[in-house]
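[User] Could I get a sequence and structure tokens?

[Assistant]
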Amino acid sequence: MTAPYLQIRGIRKDYGAVTAVQDVNLEVRRGEFMTFLGPSGSGKSTTLYILAGFQDPTAGDILLEGRSILQTPSHLRQIGMVFQRYTLFPHLTVAENVGFPLKVRRRPRAEIDAKVKEMLKLVRLEGFEDRRPSDMSGGQQQRVALARALSYDPPVLLMDEPLSALDKKLREEIQHEIRRIHQETEVTILYVTHDQEEALRMSDRIAVFSKGVIDQVGTGPELYANPATRFVAEFVGDSDFLSCEVVRSDGHTADIRLGSDLLVPGVPVHGSGGQRAAGALLLRPERIQLHRREPGDGRTLPVRVSDLTFLGSNVHVAATTGWGEDVAVRLPFGHGAIEGLSRGDTVWLGFDPQATHVFC
């Protein structure tokens, strides 16, 4: 079996009595785009800085191609880094910024010039060689920072929330460019973000961080369809949670009761809750069916519409259950069930039990 290209083994980082990262383990393939996703304070940036050599771990090891790099100083690890702040030298031109890593490595002038030209073509900034960072937009500056980080052909590129300072439209444009550059260069990228949409759009796989640990690693569809924890279910994609009672569970599926009389069989279950345990049913808003009239099959949940919001391609229907919990339904614009629907109306919600999860 081929060994993983990059291995994070049991990394822990303590700041006095506070543990920022605890027992983080991860294997990354060569050329993979791996994203660290999580809220502020979850440990994702700390893990990235340990990889870069900017911080020392309290425990654990990091292996690159089977060899530990912890004793190698950060400037000798040959790992590229792109920060949220562009960290460009304001007194240098674009060409001088991009060529700086090669200059400090004492590469020949001709090699530097050729590489600068190649990198600016890669990030689509040909003709900007003589500009200063102050004469460029935020998106252009971030492209220069990316070109500089790639100029010396690092085996691994680390990116710490590089697009969070940009507006939505520009952020999406640069996301596309980073993805294109990754496909062209095949560099291994570890990317930190708290933006789930950004992670889903760009990544080969995602490591979801929570309170200093990795809750789950997987592709976007895997995390969305089969979340291992309630935190992953809440953080990746939109979600509704309804309280329920677990009537029966074999550890893999459960029969649950919603409200006083709706029995839902065969729901995938997470947790050790046994019979009569309290649980929370995960529903994805776009996978809920909305019926204007009760189907009469005993498999739907009556709710009262509290609000309707037009969002362009879809409509958000907010509703409330008979026991006072909120639930959201997302339907495509023009869906027949929305026509004539008003606040205060009673509708019936249906769903496929196999497309839900119960956490207990």
